[in-house]
Amino acid sequence: MRVNKMKKKIVLACAECLSRNYHSDKHTQQTERLELKKFCKKCNKHTVHRETK
Fold first, then answer.
1. Most buried among 15, 28, 47, 49, by the most CB within 10 A?
2. CA atoms of 3 and 27, how far apart (whole Å)
């Protein structure tokens, strides 16, 4: 039997300047918020980007 895993679209925001500049997909079974190191164009450096509501 095949289980259909749904994905949810999320927005990632920079932890320093709070600009929302990345979009991603996340499985609905994950409960914790996603955190990734990405390049922020506004800060002009690599910073932590967190999932927003």
1. 49
2. 13
Q: What does the pLDDT read at residue 7?
A: 86
Query: Is-contact 33 47, C-beta < 8 A?
Result: no
Task: Strand 20-27: give its sheet, edge to edge.
Answer: 20-27, 7-14, 45-51, 35-40
pTM metric for this prediction: 0.78
What is the rounded distance in angstroms from the CA atom of residue 41 to the CA atom of residue 33?
Answer: 22
Q: What DSSP letter does each residue of 4-44 carry, written as one string? A: ---EEEEEEEETTT--EEEEEEEETT--SPPEEEEEETTTT
Q: What are phi and psi of 43, to 5 degrees?
A: -80, -20
> And the tokens for 23?
């979009």
